[in-house]
Every structure is written in structure tokens, then in C-alpha cells.
């Protein structure tokens, strides 16, 4: 030990999904040297799983759409605790970012007159999502990857960052290990961009992959940065529920955008039963009107299946809890019914939803053109993340920037489908630009080798424990118990008592983590990787629980049965998490800065 | 619950062997589930790659009972479970450990292919007008999830190890996606013929057979590229003249 390779770049980007790639491309274009760290291989990050589309008010399908409508939809969906400046920038800049993807080779589906086609999605007033069937994420990540590799950046595949390095408050680099050999490396940088994605692996039922373990959230927190809005975890209403091995895998909202309907065991379209007050004026009165909306009738209003994800997920949970669920504990999602309306329905479904057709056929023996699907909520996305400045994406620590899912602000209490992919592009680009500026304005710092040594010793402890006499425990059982704890105690429906129990449970899990041991050696050892990821998962789980306890109301994705109503006072604050001087996690709240009058006016006009 | 035995290749570049693991099998399970179960219960350090578990990322490629497959999309009820299921790494790439191989060659190859070069935008806002029919063709190629199973099964790479002379089916699909993109203006024929070694493909269609995305690799991508190369670089008139002048 003590031996490690050091790599030096002006800007280091941690994470190679949509946000990280877009940031790296932008930084490169500003003439600085860029290193891009991928936890998995390039092009395999979780962005690849995104299905539905990229929200951007291009107005190609409905010319009534513009940035103001997109802005107010985003704010309404986020229950007005979003960072309004981010929502404004996002709505204004996303059309340009989508056109840019086309210039880099993305092949979007087309309108009849040859422009980029846009589809309906939950919470969006007009058809807004640029898409490629139901594999938009693949198209996006591949386009960014294939463009990015020619921009001069250095790509580090299968490297995992375990600690940020600092000089005073300023973040100046990171320690990482390589997956194949388990060697430690140090990255030295003038600016660091965190783009590490989500935290889905803290829950049992999730659409997220193995590497979504909240690394960026936890690393930034450990370095002293503030986290924000961590109580808001999005449970996507439609994940697969059967067979058991695929539980949680995503079923795109695009199914409902194309006319799919939700039914309970009695065959009732229950989404019509309860429509939130602030969406009443925008929602269809009848199934007939809803169908016309999905087929592009501009005079029709959207069907209730396209209400926001938080609401839809809770309606589904209610049906299941009250005994009207499907045989495997979900509800039914039916797209096959459209054959009553469309002569070529089978071909239409296969063309519009090819990967859903494939996924159900292959994994569940269900032909979605003929049969109903069974679906239920799955942990999908975290609205909370690293607190950043809206324009520059810089965190509360100088030199540390964040973008994409690991950054907070744009989505408020609930993210609209499709806003994530556009967020990655818009705010990823901004992070890249401002990190490059920061790197140009600030010289390099010296890395303290002691900081590196402490970290590498810490990372190797699980091996010593397994080989020592003490009775250590393997990482998988701890991870599993954590996922069950969070699923059952800090899930879709929350209350004080269960969350207090979760805090106690987390304390015990931390103790078990301190005794985790792994067999084998450092060469491509998933047991070791799981053990190291555990501390990040525990950190974000604690942040989610503390923030959720702090918000004593129900808003967006955060629903408390002991405080089932929205409280005006909580509509004026964001909840923050930060480490105190003793290394303990502290929670506080701060008022949301007042919104400028012109933005207020837009929201008023769009009501 | 019923059990099944999985014979999994364990080892690294310096050697290894198949080791049998027994694990419980439940409804709907795929090979990757069994690997995960074995990893959690019996072999914490068993190396395999995976991300999406839904056939979208192309990470969990391996050979199951000798067939190149995505482990996440291979259902156990499609396999004879009365005998051990063998799971081993891909053969066309250097082994790292257990089920993982070093696939970085594919990334290096891609970087050498001339990048997308669009014609000037049609509209003042920087956008283009393209008919859906014109985009359909490349959308088939752009479905590729880069699992590299086609590269694994290609005999030019697998048996003859001509990695320096032939870019393989995945990379040819990528060239096809660029060449047939309605906006692209680049010409890649010279490279296809020489550096990319398209002539090595003798159309056995093994790649097409293993593609989990069901891309018609040989018929729709490689053969049309071969035709372009022939049309441009093997013009019959000059060949005719060459034939006689050499005699």
C-alpha cells in the first residue's frame, strides 16, 4: 500500500450517464482537460434504462407549447418547492439541447412533416417528449458516448470513487479503485463534477441497477457539502410485479401515453375516482375524452392515468391495500384494449413500445398486444441531492459541482416523467461550462498523501476482518436487510413511529457495517464492492429518513399518514442535511427564496 | 423449492476450472438471478457484470450451455435443469476473472471509425426535416446495446483472433448506422475495405443468430456495406483493364 497511480485533469467528472457525459463534452469544448470516471463500462450507466423520452417544449406536435407551459408544468408537478430558477433554465434551454443531440447523430422518431415527434406523458400539458420508441435513454447515452469519445476526454471505465479529496474547503480530487485489479488511484483536478446518479439500491423493489448506491450524495456529504430535499423519493407507479425475479423492472409511462389504462381486479378504471384539486381542470371527464387526448385531439384533456407519478402510485397502492389488486399484488395495465379503436393495434403497439413488448414476452410470457400487464410501484428516482447553485451547478463546497439525479432542486417534491433526460442535458451542460471556468480561474492544489493513505487503509479493512479471528459478516445480508428496512419503514406511505424505528435499525446496520468482512482478493470482487458501497447506502438512507421526519406534511412523493394534508408552512421551505463538527448528521430547513414576479405571473396564467 | 446445479467457470488469466454450485430455483428465474443467488449465498467474490437486468444495457453477456447469451434474458425454464447448466465467459476477449472479460478492444475500435458528419441544417433553428421511413433503417442498427455477443461468436475474431485486421459485426453495424444515416455526409468505404477488413466476413450469419436485439446484422448492415465497397472500389471497367494489362 501507499503505492498508487495519480492522474491529473483540469476537470474530473464522476459518473458517465447522461449528465456526466454532457458535462464532460461541454467542459472539453472549453479547452480544458477532462477525465471521465465510469463506475460501470461506458454506455452502460442507468440512463440507458430511460424509456419514455426527453421533455422539451419544441412545439412540434402542438404549437401551443412553449417554455412557459413547460416551466409551470414542472413547478406544479414539484408542488412549488422546486428551485424556480432551475426550472426556468431547464424549460428555456431543453429544446436547444435536444436539437443538439440530433446534430450529434440521434435518430428520433418523426412527425409526418419530418420534425422530431413528441409524445404525451404524465403531468405535461401538451405532447412534449422527444423519443425513440421506448428506448430513448439508449439513444441518448449512445449519442453522447459516440460524440464524446472524439472530444479529447480521457475515459476511465470501471473505476469506483471512494472519497473526495480536499484542500481546506475546496474539492481538489478523488480516490478511486479499479474494478479489475482492485488497485487504488488518485485523481487530481482543479474542479470536480459529481454526476453519479441515484440511490435506488437503498430499497428492495427498485428499477435501479447495482451501481445506483448514492455514491455522489454520500461522498459530497462526507466532504461537507449540503444535501437538500432528500425526503422526496419517487416511486414509479408501474414496475413489473411478476415473476418475482423481475419485480421492480420499469414499465414505461409511455404505455399510458399511448393510451394504456389502469384497471383493478373488478375491471374498474379507478384513476377516474380521485383527481387532485389542482389538476381537475386539466383532466378528462370520460374515458372517451381521455382516448381522444392520447390520439392528439387538441380539444380533449388528458386521461387520469397521465396524472403525476406520486398520485398515480398512491392510487395503485390504495387499490392493492383495499383488496382490489391483481393476482400477484399489483394492478392491471392494459394497452391491448386499443384494438377496439385502431385497426392495426398490434403493429402499432410493437412499433411504439418495442422494448416493453420484448420485455414482457421474454420475462413474463405475456403478449402485451393481447393481454393485460400486472404492475405496481417501484423505487425509481430521488428528487433530493446535492445542493447546488441554479446557474452554475456549484455545490456549497468550492470546486465541487453536481448535476443530474445526484443534484437537487429542479424537481421539487415530484419529478415529471421526461424531465430527467432534459435535466441531464441542460444542467449537465451548465455544470461542464462552469466547472471549466472554475478550472481556468483557479490553479491546481496539492493533494495530501495522508488523506489518500487513510482512505485506502479504510477500504481494505473488510479483507482484514474476514481473515481475522473475529466473527465478521458478509456484505450481501447487510445490504438486503437495509433494503427491507427502507422499503417497509420509509417507503410510499410513511409515519413517525415507523421512521423512528428505521433510525434505530440504521444504527444497528452501521454497527454491522463496521464489522463487514469479505473473502477472496482485490481482483474483480463484487463482495468487496458491495461492502464499500454499503456506507454510501447507509448515509443516504439516514438522510432520507431524517428529512422525511422533518417534513411533517404530505407533499408530492412524500406521503405521511400521520400528516396526510399539505401544510402551507412547509410549502415555503426546503429541508437540508449536513454533517456537523462531530461527524453527526444534522437536519435543518431554510425558506425558499422568493420567486420573481414575472415567473409568478406565468404560473398564474397557466392555472 | 426445486434446486438446480450451475457449473460456473472460476478463475483468471493464469488458469481456472468449472465449479458446481447448487441453488434453489423459483418461477420466472433467469440465469443472472441464479448467479446473483450463488454470489450472495456461496461465492461473494464471483465476478460478473450486470446493470439493468432487463436486456437494455448489454453488460451480462456470457456463454450459457455453450450459447452466447445475455444472462438476464435467459429463462431457466428454457434450459434442461436435470443436468448442470454451464456458465462461462465470452471467448473472443481476454479473461479478467470468472465471467468477466476485457472488452476494451471494442471501444478502441469504435474510436477509429470516422464520426458522424451531418449535412447543414435544413431550418434556421438548426433542425432537419427527415421522413420516418428514412430513419427506420438506422433505428434498427441503433437498437444495438453493445453486448458484444456478435463479436464473441464471429469466427474471424473467436477462432482466428484477427482483432487487428477486422472490426467485427458490432463495429460494422455501427458503420452501417452512420453510413445509412439520412444526414451523414462522410465516406467510410476506403477504411471499410482496408483498416476495417470487411472482406473477412464471409456471411455465415452467426452474429445475426445471437443478437438479443434481433438486428439483422448480416443482411441489413454488412452486405449493403460490402456492396458499397464493391461499387466504389471495385469498378468493373477498371478491373477489366487491369486484368488485360497485367497479362
Considering the chains and any ligands shown, give keywords for the structure.
heterodimer; A: 607 residues; alpha/beta; FAD/NAD(P)-binding domain; Flavocytochrome C3, Chain A, domain 1; Methane Monooxygenase Hydroxylase, Chain G, domain 1; 3 domains; four-stranded antiparallel sheet; B: 247 residues; alpha+beta; Ubiquitin-like (UB roll); Fumarate Reductase Iron-sulfur Protein, Chain B, domain 2; 2 domains; five-stranded mixed sheet; two-stranded antiparallel ribbon; 10 helices; 15% strand; elongated
Multimer state: heterodimer
Question: What CATH architecture of the largest domain in chain A would you give?
Answer: 3-Layer(bba) Sandwich
Instruction: Note the run of SSEs of chain B as H and E.
Output: EEHEEEEEHHHHHHHHH
Q: Which structural class do you get from the secondary structure elements of chain B? A: alpha+beta
Number of domains of chain A: 3
Given as residue ranges, the uncertain stretches of chain A (5+ residues, pLDDT < 50) are none
Low-confidence spans of chain B: none
Largest interface: A-B, 69 and 62 residues
Total domain units of chain B: 2
For the biggest β-sheet of chain B, the strand order reads: 2-1-5-3-4
Instruction: Give the total of beta strands of chain A.
Output: 20
Distance between the termini of chain A: 62 Å
Return the average pLDDT of chain B rounded to an integer: 95
Percent helix range of chain B: 25-40%
CATH topology of the largest domain in chain A: FAD/NAD(P)-binding domain
Average pLDDT of chain A: 96
SSE map:
The complex is a heterodimer of chains A (607) and B (247).
Chain A: E1 5-14, H1 18-29, E2 34-37, E3 54-55, H2 67-77, H3 84-103, E4 118-119, E5 129-130, H4 136-148, E6 154-156, E7 159-167, E8 170-178, E9 184-194, H5 215-223, E10 227-228, E11 233-240, H6 254-257, E12 261-263, H7 287-294, H8 309-321, E13 331-334, H9 345-352, H10 354-364, E14 373-382, E15 385-386, E16 400-402, H11 419-441, H12 449-467, H13 475-489, E17 493-494, H14 496-513, H15 526-550, E18 559-560, E19 573-579, E20 585-591, H16 597-605
Chain B: E1 3-12, E2 15-24, H1 31-41, E3 61-64, E4 67-70, E5 85-88, E6 95-97, E7 100-101, H2 104-112, H3 132-142, H4 149-153, H5 155-158, H6 168-179, H7 189-193, H8 206-210, H9 217-233, H10 236-245
Parallel strand pairs in B: 1-5
Antiparallel strand pairs in B: 1-2, 3-4, 3-5, 6-7
Helix pairs in contact in B: 3-6, 6-9
Amino acid at each position: 500500500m501507499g503505492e498508487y497511480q495519480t492522474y491529473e485533469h483540469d476537470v474530473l467528472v464522476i459518473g458517465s450517464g447522461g449528465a456526466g457525459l454532457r458535462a464532460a463534452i461541454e467542459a472539453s469544448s472549453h479547452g480544458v482537460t477532462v477525465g471521465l470516471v465510469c463506475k460501470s463500462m461506458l454506455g452502460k450507466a442507468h440512463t440507458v434504462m430511460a424509456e419514455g423520452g426527453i421533455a422539451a417544449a419544441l412545439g412540434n406536435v402542438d404549437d401551443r407549447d412553449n417554455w412557459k407551459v413547460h416551466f409551470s408544468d414542472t413547478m406544479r408537478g414539484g408542488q412549488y418547492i422546486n428551485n424556480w430558477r432551475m426550472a426556468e433554465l431547464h424549460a428555456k434551454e431543453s429544446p436547444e439541447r435536444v436539437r443538439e443531440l440530433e446534430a450529434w447523430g440521434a435518430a428520433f422518431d418523426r412527425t409526418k412533416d419530418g420534425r422530431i415527434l413528441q409524445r404525451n406523458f404524465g403531468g405535461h400539458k401538451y405532447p412534449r417528449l422527444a423519443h425513440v420508441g421506448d428506448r430513448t435513454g439508449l439513444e441518448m447515452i449512445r449519442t453522447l458516448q459516440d460524440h464524446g469519445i472524439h472530444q479529447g476526454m480521457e475515459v476511465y471505465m470501471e473505476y469506483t470513487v471512494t472519497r473526495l479529496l480536499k484542500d481546506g474547503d475546496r474539492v481538489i480530487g478523488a480516490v478511486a479503485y479499479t474494478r479489475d485489479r482492485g488497485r487504488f488511484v488518485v485523481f487530481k483536478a482543479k474542479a470536480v463534477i459529481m454526476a453519479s446518479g441515484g440511490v435506488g439500491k437503498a430499497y428492495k423493489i427498485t428499477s435501479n441497477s447495482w451501481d445506483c448506491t448514492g455514491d455522489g450524495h454520500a461522498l459530497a456529504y462526507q466532504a461537507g457539502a449540503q444535501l437538500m430535499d432528500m425526503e422526496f423519493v419517487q416511486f414509479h407507479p408501474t414496475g413489473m410485479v411478476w415473476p418475482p425475479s423481475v419485480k421492480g423492472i420499469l414499465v414505461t409511462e409511455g404505455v399510458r401515453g399511448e393510451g394504456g389504462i389502469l384497471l383493478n381486479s373488478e375491471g374498474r378504471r379507478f384513476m377516474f375516482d380521485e383527481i387532485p384539486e389542482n389538476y381537475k381542470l386539466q383532466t378528462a371527464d370520460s374515458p372517451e375524452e381521455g382516448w381522444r387526448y392520447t390520439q392528439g385531439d387538441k380539444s380533449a384533456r388528458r386521461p387520469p392515468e397521465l396524472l403525476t407519478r406520486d398520485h398515480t402510485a398512491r392510487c395503485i397502492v390504495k387499490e392493492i391495500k383495499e383488496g382490489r389488486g391483481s393476482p400477484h399484488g399489483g394492478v392491471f395495465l392494459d394497452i391491448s384494449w386499443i384494438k377496439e379503436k385502431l385497426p392495426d393495434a398490434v403493429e402499432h403497439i410493437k412499433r411504439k413500445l418495442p422494448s416493453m413488448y420484448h420485455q414482457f414476452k421474454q420475462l413474463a410470457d405475456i403478449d402485451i398486444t393481447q393481454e393485460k400487464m400486472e404492475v405496481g410501484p417501484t423505487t425509481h428516482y430521488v428528487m433530493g441531492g446535492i445542493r447546488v447553485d441554479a446557474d452554475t451547478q456549484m455545490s456549497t463546497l468550492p470546486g465541487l459541482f453536481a448535476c443530474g439525479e445526484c443534484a437537487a432542486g429542479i424537481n421539487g417534491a415530484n419529478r415529471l416523467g421526461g424531465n430527467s433526460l432534459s435535466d441531464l442535458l441542460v444542467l449537465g451542460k451548465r455544470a461542464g461550462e462552469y466547472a471549466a471556468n472554475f478550472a481556468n480561474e483557479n490553479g491546481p492544489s496539492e493533494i495530501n498523501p495522508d488523506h489518500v493513505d487513510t482512505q485506502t487503509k479504510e477500504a481494505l479493512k473488510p479483507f482484514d476482518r474476514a481473515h481475522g479471528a473475529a466473527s465478521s459478516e458478509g456484505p450481501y445480508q447487510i445490504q438486503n436487510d437495509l433494503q427491507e428496512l427502507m422499503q417497509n419503514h420509509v417507503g410510499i406511505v410513511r409515519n413517525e413511529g415507523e421512521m423512528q424505528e428505521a433510525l434505530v435499525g440504521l444504527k444497528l446496520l452501521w454497527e454491522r457495517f463496521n464489522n463487514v468482512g469479505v473473502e477472496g482478493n482485490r481482483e474483480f470482487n463484487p463482495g468487496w464492492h458491495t461492502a464499500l458501497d454499503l456506507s454510501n447506502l447507509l448515509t443516504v438512507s439516514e438522510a432520507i429518513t431524517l428529512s422525511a421526519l422533518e417534513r411533517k406534511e404530505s407533499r408530492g412523493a412524500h406521503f405521511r399518514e400521520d400528516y396526510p394534508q399539505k401544510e402551507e408552512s412547509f410549502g415555503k421551505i426546503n429541508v437540508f442535511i449536513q454533517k456537523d463538527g462531530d461527524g453527526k448528521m444534522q437536519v435543518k430547513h431554510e425558506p425558499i427564496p422568493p420567486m420573481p414576479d414575472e415567473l409568478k405571473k406565468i404560473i398564474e396564467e397557466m392555472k | 423449492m426445486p434446486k438446480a446445479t450451475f457449473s460456473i467457470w472460476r478463475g483468471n488469466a493464469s488458469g481456472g476450472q468449472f465449479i458446481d454450485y447448487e441453488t434453489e430455483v423459483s418461477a420466472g428465474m433467469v440465469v443472472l438471478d441464479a448467479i446473483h443467488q450463488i454470489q450472495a449465498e456461496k461465492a461473494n467474490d464471483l465476478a460478473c457484470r450486470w446493470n439493468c437486468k432487463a436486456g437494455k444495457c448489454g453488460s451480462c453477456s456470457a456463454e450459457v450451455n455453450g450459447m452466447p447469451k445475455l444472462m438476464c434474458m435467459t429463462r431457466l425454464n428454457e434450459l434442461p435443469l436435470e443436468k448442470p447448466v454451464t456458465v462461462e465467459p465470452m471467448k473472443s476477449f481476454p479473461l479478467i476473472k470468472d465471467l468477466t472479460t476485457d472488452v476494451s478492444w471494442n471501444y478502441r475500435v469504435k474510436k477509429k471509425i470516422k464520426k458522424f458528419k451531418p449535412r447543414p441544417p435544413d431550418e434556421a433553428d438548426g433542425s432537419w426535416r427527415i421522413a420516418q421511413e428514412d430513419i427506420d433503417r438506422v433505428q434498427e442498427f441503433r437498437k444495438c446495446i453493445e453486448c458484444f455477443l456478435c463479436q464473441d461468436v464471429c469466427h474471424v475474431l473467436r477462432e482466428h483472433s484477427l482483432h487487428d485486421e477486422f472490426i467485427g459485426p458490432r463495429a460494422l453495424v455501427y458503420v452501417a448506422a452512420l453510413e445509412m444515416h439520412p444526414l451523414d455526409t462522410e465516406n467510410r468505404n476506403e477504411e471499410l475495405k482496408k483498416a476495417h477488413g470487411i472482406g473477412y466476413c464471409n456471411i455465415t450469419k452467426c452474429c445475426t443468430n445471437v443478437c438479443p436485439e434481433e438486428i439483422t446484422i448480416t443482411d441489413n448492415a454488412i452486405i449493403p456495406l460490402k456492396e458499397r465497397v464493391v461499387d466504389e472500389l471495385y469498378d468493373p471497367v477498371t478491373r477489366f483493364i487491369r486484368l488485360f494489362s497485367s497479362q
